[in-house]
C-alpha cells in the first residue's frame, strides 16, 4: 500500500474528520471535493475566495471563531446557536448543510445545540437552520455522501459548464 492510499493517507484522515469545507465542496461539486482531498487547492489565488475572507473579517468583528480541529465555526452564541457568515448574495442549500454539519459536530461533543443561523451581510438577510431529528439525519447522510466521494478511486465527472462559473477549479476542469 502506498503512502498516498494507506491507512495514514490524507484521504483516510479526511474520512475520519470532515469539516465544513468538505460539505460545501460536496454540495457545490463532488469533483471539487475529490480534487481538494488530493491536494489540488487553487483557492489561494481566487478573487472570490479573497472577497469572502474580507467579508468574514469585516463583519461581526466582536465574535470569535470556534475551532473544532476538523472545522472552524464562525461563532456560537449563548444557548448553543451556531452562526455562519457568507459573502454570497443568494442563500444556498449548501450553506444550510454546512451549518447542520457544524451542529452535528458540536452535538457529538456533548453540546445541546438549539439551531443555526446563516448570515448574509451583503444582502442584510439571515436564514435560520433548524436542528432536529430530521436535520440530524440529513447531516449524517451528507457526511456519508462526502465519504463516498472521498473514497472513490476515480475523479467524479464535471458539472455542466454553466454551473462552474466563479469556481476556482474551473481551469483544472475546463482548461
UniProtKB/TrEMBL annotation:
Superkingdom as given in the UniProt entry = Bacteria
**Which is one Pfam family of this protein?**
Cas_Cas4
Residue span, DUF83 domain: 20-174
Put simply, this protein is called: CRISPR-associated protein Cas4
Q: Which organism was this protein described from?
A: Frankia umida
Amino acid at each position: 500500500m502506498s503512502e498516498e492510499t494507506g491507512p495514514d493517507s490524507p484521504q483516510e484522515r479526511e474520512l475520519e474528520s470532515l469539516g465544513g469545507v468538505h460539505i460545501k465542496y460536496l454540495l457545490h461539486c463532488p469533483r471539487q471535493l475529490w480534487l481538494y482531498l488530493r491536494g489540488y487547492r487553487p483557492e489561494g489565488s481566487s478573487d472570490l475566495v479573497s472577497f469572502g475572507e474580507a467579508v468574514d473579517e469585516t463583519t461581526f468583528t466582536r465574535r470569535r471563531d470556534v475551532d473544532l480541529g476538523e472545522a472552524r465555526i464562525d461563532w456560537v452564541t449563548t444557548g448553543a446557536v451556531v452562526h455562519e457568515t457568507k459573502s454570497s448574495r443568494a442563500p444556498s442549500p449548501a450553506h444550510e448543510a454546512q451549518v447542520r454539519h457544524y451542529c452535528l459536530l458540536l452535538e457529538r461533543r456533548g453540546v445541546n445545540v438549539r439551531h443555526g443561523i446563516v448570515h448574509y451581510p451583503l444582502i442584510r438577510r439571515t436564514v435560520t437552520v433548524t436542528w432536529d431529528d430530521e436535520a440530524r439525519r440529513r447531516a449524517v447522510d451528507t457526511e456519508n455522501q462526502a465519504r463516498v466521494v472521498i473514497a472513490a478511486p476515480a475523479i467524479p465527472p464535471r458539472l455542466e459548464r454553466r454551473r462552474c462559473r466563479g469556481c476556482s477549479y474551473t481551469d483544472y476542469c475546463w482548461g
